[in-house]
Amino acid sequence: MTPVLNVDSLSLSLGGKEILKDVSFQVPEGIHLCVVGPNGAGKTSLLKCLMRIHTRWTGSIRIAGFPVSSMTQKELARKVGYVPQAGERSFPFTSSRFLLMSRYPNLSPFSPPSQKDRQVVREAFALTGTTEFAERDMRTLSGGERQKVFLAAVLAQGARILLLDEPATFLDPFHEEKVLAILENLRRRSGKTIISVTHDINHAVLFADRVLALAGGEVV
Predict the structure, then answer these.
(1) 69 vs 40, 56, 60, 160, CA distance in Å?
(2) Distance of alpha carbon 200 from alpha carbon 170, whole angstroms
(3) Exposed, middle or buried by CB within 10 Å (0-12, 13-18, 19+), for 3?
(4) Nearest C-alpha neighbor of 72 from the set 50, 52, 88, 92
(5) With bands split at pLDDT 50, 70 and 90, how would you rate the model's confidence at 175?
(6) Which of 27, 95, 134, 177 lies 20 to 30 Å from 144 when distance is taken between CA atoms?
(7) Of 11, 82, 87, 7, whose CA–CA distance to 42 is shortest?
(8) 214, containing H or E segment
(9) Which is nearest to 197 in space by CA: 55, 30, 53, 84?
């Protein structure tokens, strides 16, 4: 299987502390890789390096053969989408407006959304079972409902690789199972590559194709 992501000798230090130490792994296209480990293992920092939120790392990160360091932010956003941890964050927009805003990597400056953009948004709502929330203000949604809308926004963005930081944490069991089912459906139907972070080893074993374990910033 052709790797869509190659990480080689990735190291990261923040505030004089070594967060990641010589991390190397490959991710074939179309699989679900789950990153597990205790708090402080470097899981979230790893995703932030892949998204270039953290930039002062050493080593190599290549996506579809291209170095992340050489990509513009728009180029990176066309390839990789990021959903941070579930929580209370919200925005004063309808869900439909939020998804249209997520299409920015595919729009020209100052150009309005096209019919194709609106169709992509409708399909993202349908795939995540969130069509009923399209005209709802996101501030009126529950945590579980918002998390599903965030997943829909990443799909509307058009990225082939989805980075998810503990996507089901803080959700009740019902919404937790819904989010995990959506991820499995996306991988099967859309061929997306999913890299998710969790501290729940049971979910990793049940839902992922491969598991990468971190401890103390190192692959174990």
Answers:
(1) 25, 11, 9, 18
(2) 12
(3) middle
(4) 52
(5) confident
(6) 27
(7) 11
(8) strand 210-215
(9) 84
* Cα–Cα distance measured from residue 51 to residue 163, given in angstroms and rounded to the nearest whole number: 8
Amino acid identity, residue 26? Answer: Q
Q: Which two tokens stand for residue 145?
A: 């409902």
Pairing type for strands 57-63 and 210-215 reads unpaired
Tokens of 156: 């509307």
End-to-end CA gap in the chain: 23
pTM (global) more than 0.90:
no
- Tokens representing 216 are 């103390």
The DSSP output letter for 112 is P
| Torsion sign across C-alpha atoms 14, 18, 12, 80 | negative
pLDDT interval class at 169 (50, 70, 90)? low
